[in-house]
Amino acid sequence: MIAMRFPRIICLIGSILLCLNLPAQDVDRYGGVYHPYRHGDLKDTPAPRGYKAFYISHIGRHGSRYPVDLNYIMHGLGPLTKADSLGLLTEEGKKLLHGFQKLDSISREDYGMLCELGAAEHNGIGERMARRFPTVFKGSKDSIVIVCTYKTRTIMSAANFLSGFKGYAPKMKVGFFAGEKYYNYICREDQAKSGLKVAGKLSDKMSADSIDFKAFYSRILTAPSRSREITKQDRVLLETCFTNGTVAAYLGLPDIVECLTPEEYRLASLSYNNKMYVSHCNSLEQGEWRVHLMDTLLVDWLTRADAAVKGNSVAADLRFSHDVGMMPFYGLIGVAGNEKVTDFLHAYDVWNSTEIMPMGANLQMIFYRNRKGDVIVKTLLNEEETSFPLLDRGDRVKAPYYRWEDLRAYLVGRLSPR
Fold this sequence. Notes:
Elements: H1 9-18, H2 24-30, E1 52-61, H3 70-85, H4 91-107, H5 116-132, H6 134-137, E2 143-148, H7 152-166, E3 173-178, H8 180-186, H9 196-210, H10 213-220, H11 234-250, H12 255-258, H13 262-280, H14 287-292, H15 295-310, E4 314-321, H16 323-333, H17 347-350, H18 353-356, E5 362-369, E6 375-381, E7 384-385, E8 401-403, H19 404-414
Parallel strand pairs: 1-4, 2-3, 2-4
Antiparallel strand pairs: 1-5, 5-6, 6-7, 6-8
Helix pairs in contact: 3-4, 3-11, 5-7, 9-13, 11-13
């Protein structure tokens, strides 16, 4: 689906804020990895005199989407359907069941696919990149390279990105590639599944200690003491109301999250945030091996950047991936907001998935060169200037512009010793 003008986009975005019982600030703060894309401050610190942008290295998450698959929403639809068959649902419980049924209904044949909002997100990111850094696409370099995982939503994201981009760089040649081999170095989720159980157990305990599940089940079941007849884990049903409910809300279906109190939504988000951190970031529990799964991506990043600096014809390398590939990559390179290492319980103190990894999240390194051939690099996180706190050393090495030789040496040092 190539992006056009979407008349429903304002309505879709508004639905997540205006149709909820939750205060808008709660949704904005706690939407987590399911929050629709929002870019950061687009202001640019002027580059030092004589430097012009000539190359961009980028990785982006797919945009806002439908639920991944039916199995995912069955964590809510299954237990609630069973409760309904047992005559256990209150009116609130019936509303919750109806919300999951509607989500399933509109997602059939679209499970895992980009939605209209996601298409518009990437259309905008592509357009802003081309308009913001025109010298990259009007100089001697004449091509861009796009690589995607084999998932349709990343391919659709790249296509919509390109649609917004091409109007401002129409002469660029485009190499467009997708497949499992790209998944195997820009995402690598399959190699990380062994670590998910660790985070799940920690999340179970945190939820049990902080969430009043008795109050939650009392609202949706006529006999809350029989909750074990519909689910084996208290956390799972409430968590899926947060995850799938947030997705449903930006699809225009607020019923699911309306069944959560603001406090339940917040606590479910914190637990899920910390679970994602331990599963995929540089955590004390398992970050050492998890982030180094993305050494493959960092090596590719460095190799392609070196080729661009040496003078190949590529103006931009654009990669389209998933949160489960980008979270460990961010931890590996230590970009701001991802550089600190802590444990599950304190994860939210140092890592905020709503700000860092919403739908459409992206990282861009913009390379500049002067007439002497000196190269400096500025990095954008969700289109906002960012830094590498572990690299900053007084005035000699300081954000937002780093000498490529300094940044490159730092990134090489983040790779696992061989």
